[in-house]
Amino acid sequence: MSPRSHPAGHRRRRGAVAAAAALSLAACGVPVDRTPTAIPKNAIPFGLLQPSARSTTTTTAASPGQSTVKIFLVTSGGRLAVADRQLPEAQPSVAEVLQALVRGPTAAETASGLQSAVPAQTTVIGATVGAGGTATVNLGGTLGQLVGQAQIEAVAQIVFTATALPGVTQVGFELAGQPIDVPVANGAEVSVANRVQFASLAPLPSAAGP
């Protein structure tokens, strides 16, 4: 068998068909290029530029932890009473808890007879916990103007509130950065106070029984 030949007429017919196809595409508005070219971004359909929904991820920041802390208020009988406070920090500092104490009782607590001897104008400048569990509390405002039983009750509130936190066993006081002595329940003044020195003001134990 001999190889097939391609007569010139056959080649002419294929050229005519290709020319006709090109004319048809041009008539439909589709440009015809002899070589591949990049399509301008503004000529690409909008939907093709959007990322696939399956490839999109959303990251939601975790909400900060909260904690319940205990502050100590004063009853009408002059004894301390514990109250709970919700704070946005998972592990609040001594200063943050004392700031909650300074804000005083809620309306419901006031209606039930609770009050605070700590003046609302008191500012918590700072607080640190040192060796042996001693918290040094630096206060400002009008706390230093208290006298007598009101001063003793205010100091007791601060001592019980601070020592309710883990690792705190006693409290030293500063006013505007200057160390001061504070009165305890028997009237004596000390440089560092603890709960034992306010035993007569300690909260009464909860009543047992059904």
Would you give an account of this structure?
By secondary structure, the protein is α+β, with helices and mostly antiparallel strands. It has 2 domains: 40 residues, no CATH class; 135 residues, no CATH class. 24% of the residues lie in helices and 21% in strands. The chain has 4 helices and 9 strands, in the order αββααββαβββββ. Strands 3, 4, 5, 6 and 9 form a 5-stranded mixed beta sheet that branches. The protein has a two-stranded antiparallel ribbon with strand order 1-2. A hairpin with a 5-residue loop joins strand 7 and strand 8. Helix 2 crosses helix 4. The N terminus is likely disordered.
What is the mean predicted local confidence, pLDDT? Answer: 80
> For the report, how would you describe the main beta sheet?
5 strands, mixed
Which class of secondary structure composition applies to the elements?
Answer: alpha+beta
Number of E-state strands: 9
Distance, first to last CA: 115 Å
Low-confidence stretches: 1-11, 15-30, 46-63
User: How many helices?
Assistant: 4
Q: Helix and strand string, N-terminal first?
A: HEEHHEEHEEEEE
Strand content: 15-25%
Total domain units:
2
**Residues in helix, %:** 10-25%
- C-alpha-based Rg, rounded: 41 Å
What is the molecular shape? globular
Provide the descriptors you would attach to this structure in a database record.
disordered N terminus, single chain, 4 helices, 210 residues, 9 strands, alpha+beta, 24% helix
